[in-house]
Design goal:
The chain is of the alpha/beta class. It has 8 helices and 5 strands. It has 2 domains: about 180 residues, Flavodoxin domain (Rossmann fold); about 30 residues, no CATH class. It has a 5-stranded parallel β-sheet with strand order 2-1-3-4-5, sandwiched between helices. Helix 6 packs antiparallel against helix 7. The longest helix has 18 residues. The protein is globular, with a radius of gyration of 18 Å. Bound molecules: flavin mononucleotide (FMN).
Length: about 220
Amino acid sequence: MRVVLLIGSPKPKSSTSQILGTIITDRLASNHGAEIAIHHAHRALRATRFMEALRADIETADLLLMSFPVYVDSLPYVLTAVLEALYSQPPTHRAAVAAVANCGFPEADHTHVSLGICAQFAYAMDMPWHGGIGIGEGTAVNGAPLENLGPFGARLKQTLHEAADALAARAPIPPEVIDQAARPMMPKRMYTFLGTLGWNKMARDNDARSVMWARPYDS
Ligand SMILES: Cc1cc2nc3c(=O)[nH]c(=O)nc-3n(C[C@H](O)[C@H](O)[C@H](O)COP(=O)(O)O)c2cc1C
């Protein structure tokens, strides 16, 4: 089985999207012998050679797996632009499509619109849709290994492995796996408490505490 992992985060270094996507592709490679090609939407958009390499890999792939963050309830622009480019010059071979969306809010529901867009992309491309996983509390991962989150990360990793096993069987991701992935990694109160600590630290580090409550557009 040949798999293309298309990472949609515009972050140049480690992103949560990359961490979550590679958990699935590592499992596909180690347990199912899959060959994996990893591409970044922001690179494909920046240089023709990266876009051509992506097209060539999709042409021979059995599965196109997209992993991306939710930006303003949708896909990041770099991923939208790459999907539009693929649509304007579709591959002759139709790989299956699946997606993993992660968002900053605790509720995974915030990924639904973006996953719907991915399903619509697959439909428009006449590629079989093998399902979308939505994950909340993505900021807790913050581009670091899931092991850093202890038991909270272990459960999610197990769920992503189950998704990989289904995709390896060339089947859609089972609904119970999608439901399991949507459950918050850690209690919402803990996540928002830690988030507040993180924002306050960022404000301190950037000498911005005094303007945290600024309302410049109030008349
Ligand atoms: C410009 C921007 C817009 C965002 N919009 C949303 C949003 O609408 N809903 C949400 O839950 N999280 C939103 N987030 C949070 C990201 O989805 C979240 O931090 C994610 O884990 C980042 O993943 P990455 O490391 O793969 O880029 C936004 C982040 C940025 C930078």
